[in-house]
């Protein structure tokens, strides 16, 4: 079974040798995240039409809220990949990359905070991504965060 999976992975990324590096695994994961999100968007709209254009934390401009969700999705998947399969990577490099990805993912989700352009499906997706970055997205729920709640008179 593992041999078949390794062959499929090598074939997917066009490698002919028996070694698939950590970088290759990250690239495959990155591209599969994009394809997965495109499939989700065939079934559910993630943001309303005419939504505000945003600038990703990387500086890439003119991105829709759906594309920002896509960037957060890639970051979340890569964080999980690093945490479950650091093989072949320098542990310090992996830890540094995880910190970068968490910061980037939080930045993506904070861009979406309060813009009002996400659909229910988009908010649900953001809510599912948030734990990868260690954040709770109170703005995606109907409730107000505890520190902003007012007591009833």
Write the layout of secondary structure elements.
Layout: H1 2-12, H2 22-43, H3 65-84, H4 91-112, H5 120-129
Helix pairs in contact: 2-3, 3-4, 3-5
How can the largest sheet be summarized? none
Which value, in Å, is the CA radius of gyration?
A: 18 Å
Number of spatially distinct domains: 1
Put simply, the count of helices is: 5
Percent of residues in β-strands: under 5%
How much helix is in the residues? 55-70%
Short description:
The protein is an all-alpha fold and 153 residues long. 56% of the residues lie in helices and 0% in strands. It has one domain (2-142).
Description:
By secondary structure, the protein is mainly α. It has one domain (2-142). It has 5 helices and no strands. It has helices at residues 2-12, 22-43, 65-84, 91-112, 120-129. α2 (22-43) runs antiparallel to α3 (65-84). The model is unreliable at 1-5, 15-20 and 137-153 (pLDDT under 50).
Keywords:
single chain, globular, mainly alpha, disordered C terminus, disordered N terminus
């Amino acid at each position: 079974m593992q041999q078949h999976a390794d062959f499929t992975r090598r074939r997917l990324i066009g490698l002919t040798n028996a070694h698939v590096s950590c970088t290759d695994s990250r690239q495959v994961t990155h591209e599969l995240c994009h394809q997965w999100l495109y499939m989700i968007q065939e079934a559910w709209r993630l943001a309303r039409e005419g939504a505000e254009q945003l600038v990703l934390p990387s500086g890439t401009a003119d991105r829709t809220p759906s594309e920002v969700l896509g960037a957060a999705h890639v970051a979340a998947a890569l964080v999980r990949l690093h945490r479950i399969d650091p093989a072949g990577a320098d542990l310090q490099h992996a830890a540094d990359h995880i910190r970068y990805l968490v910061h980037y993912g939080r930045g993506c989700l904070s861009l979406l905070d309060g813009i009002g352009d996400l659909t229910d499906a988009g908010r649900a997706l953001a809510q599912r991504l948030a734990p990868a970055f260690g954040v709770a997205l109170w703005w995606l729920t109907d409730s107000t965060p505890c520190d902003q709640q007012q007591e009833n008179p």
